[in-house]
Amino acid sequence: DVHLYREVTERIREANVDVVLNLTAGMGGDMVFGSPEAPLPLNEKGTDMGGATNRMEHVRQCLPEICTLDCGTMNFAEADYVMTNTPGMLRAMGGMMTALGVKPEIEAFDTGHLWFAKQLVEEQVLKPDALVQLCMGVPWGAPDDLNTFMAMVNNVPSTWNWSAFSIGRNQMAYVAAAVLAGGNVRVGLEDNLWLDKGVLATNAQLVERAVSIVSNLGARVLGPEEVRKKLNLTKRTPIAA
Fold first, then answer.
1. pLDDT in tens, 102-125
2. Domain 2-231, second-level architecture
């Protein structure tokens, strides 16, 4: 619902706390098949396939500084659900992001996703100073063992900025791993619900714990203006509805 996106982003912009605004563009790519013996027609419950313009409309109206680009198709946890992002769809959406002046956050769930992201930069669909998120431990993408993680890290071009996360119990371990490997970090309730065993977290608590890990490792958390400068972001005002 574009109107709900506008309401949320307007409330954030009207708040007294400055933050870098990042919206997902991942919806509209969900395909849920029927049973293994009868995969078609698609299951209407859960399937939400949409066109590139439709998937990008809230980004066009709200003009966040960053939006996500899930850079590939993947079997995603459930038995008959496929996260669907074809090369054609990604070229179209990536081109729209670039034209809008919104920084794509490339979501790489596996090595092939990173490979195609580099192709998008080579084709000038995305700008050379790309931003990529290494998404570890999401079934059935890249597992969150350190060998796989470092294989992903070693394939990120030196001109790109990157961050990484793992889901569930390894979320905070990957805060440390990302810092040690020279990258940036992501935490939040999307990836992990727990602060400790049996203790549900708030988003703020997860951020506070991550900050303490970053600081204890001798690194520093950047403020919003520093992030904008580092990532070449432009703070914008939304387009009239």
1. 999 999 999 999 999 999 999 999
2. Alpha-Beta Barrel (3.20)
